[in-house]
Specification:
1 helix; three-stranded antiparallel beta sheet; alpha+beta; globular; single chain; 5 strands
Length: 73
């Protein structure tokens, strides 16, 4: 699960396996495979970085990466 923030500042935990796509409209809108849509305060890039960190944490890899290199920091 990744932690995000709803537009009203309440925290939200999202299962990244349910994310179908993410749009910047200019708010960040996450569409889930269930048909639900979520508006969050984080940018598309922040959401993607959290998904990557989450996937690394469950696969046993490093938890951080630099955007420029794509390698663990």
């Amino acid at each position: 699960m990744i932690e995000l923030t709803r537009i009203n500042d309440s925290p939200l935990m999202v299962n990244p396996d349910l994310i179908e796509f993410i749009e910047q409209t200019p708010d960040t809108v996450i569409s889930l495979t269930t048909g639900r849509k979520l508006m969050v305060r984080e940018s598309v890039e922040e959401v993607v970085e959290r998904i990557i960190a989450f996937r690394r944490s469950i696969s046993g890899g490093p938890l951080t990466a630099t955007r420029e290199s794509g390698h663990a920091a």
